[in-house]
Design a protein that fits this description.
This protein has 17 helices and 22 strands. With 493 residues, the protein is α/β, with parallel strands linked by helices. A hairpin with a 2-residue loop joins strand 21 and strand 22. The protein is elongated and about 95 Å long.
Length: 493
Amino acid sequence: MSSKVTIQRLKTGVPGLDDLLGGGLPEFSFNLIAGTPGSGKTTLAHQIMFSLASANMRALFFTVLGEPALKMLRYQQQFPFFDLTKVNQSIRYVNLTAELMTGDFDGVLSRIGEEVKNYAPSLVFVDSFRSVVQSATPEGPGLAGLQHFVQQLSMQMTSWQATTFLIGEYSTPTESSAIFTVADGILWLSQSLHRNSMVRKMQVIKMRGQSQATGLHTFRIDGEGIQIYPRAIIKQGTATESSITVPSGDERVPMGVPGLDAMLGGGLPSGYSVLVVGPSGSGKTILATQFLTEGARRGELGVIAAFEKSPSQLLSNQLYPLVKAKQVGVIDTRSLDLSIDQILHDMIKMINEMKAKRVVIDSLSGFDLALAPEFSEDFRGSLYRMIAELTSMGVTILMTSELEDRYTDLRFSPFGSAFLADAIIVQRYIELEGQFKRALSVVKVRGSEHDKDIRLFDITDDGIVLGATLSQYSGIMSGHPIVEHDQSKSTPP
């Protein structure tokens, strides 16, 4: 061969699917859409078909479900991707029930071949192919005849110069079947009930000739059809001297709380993630709000995903004018049974649309509760992938986490995820002189010097106001003079 064959990739029109497939479906490929009953196989097939079908790319859809095509279309046309003008123009439906009732595989092949020859489609769908498999009775051709039928059908599909799809019900993706061997691509769909949550997942078992996203990826079927949320995968590569980026610490992000930047060593390094932990009412959300407000004041747009407060509660504070002015975007987290991949998808989309520089997740505790139980079990690993993906975009992240104040032990995260943060700020209650006081300390700032003092603070109408250090407070109580803290050193320009 003097030159390589270039295979055109067809865009499926299903949000997220092309990312899984490595750019789209290979033209003239032979694909199997398989999975458990009710997992969305027929809907996926129709969404792909209506997206690709046109006057120059006609589609032929064989139904072997034992029910009229009109009944199936009655439900599929509820989705906005369904275009009635394409039916009988660029899309044609053919029912094979009569041929299947006789168990005559040769008759089915003959009818399929005749229809394809007469219509000359670019796309061919057979739904449900499993019905053909189940028709292999002992009295009929049997499994040997079925295997011959599958081989003949696959060879015919190759000769048609069409992109083909067989839709079938299978219990597991490892189920033995001749069709699994000859298919160029296999998409596996599943759904499972975990406690009270319905979780749908998709896996690309194989896709010949191109790289695909591995593993299981969540998807939803809503009023728009199927939406896939590709799992965040940390990109692997060989580290070279030119590819390793060491934060210089020169570019700092002001937090919006006078005095806190000085405690952080001059502000939070740009592109870092900071974890703010503390018990209920300690001021975590207020600090997050001041962080976003300071960003808006400097022309740095922000995004917040709030899991503990309703939109009305969230927007009742000083964030409302920022959201109204489109300086802060709010991720909708009101629906339960979320996946981290879905939240990450929405966050990345909003970050890119707004060109946001600051991101707030308030809080990780509420985030864990909002997830479907199946995703909550791998919360730590999924969170690691999410933070890695966001920080690779160059945004600065502030996360809050509810932490029970036990007074006797010092912890920084209920999930064992403190290692994910480049910086940690701890808010605590301290009993002094018969009162509860709020105290704040900077536990770590990776690669930077920071203040080791514990500082008292108050929450006023202007937000968080830092006060004396704990040692200074003790000096005041004992009547010893102290040196006042110079707030001007940390006041943002």
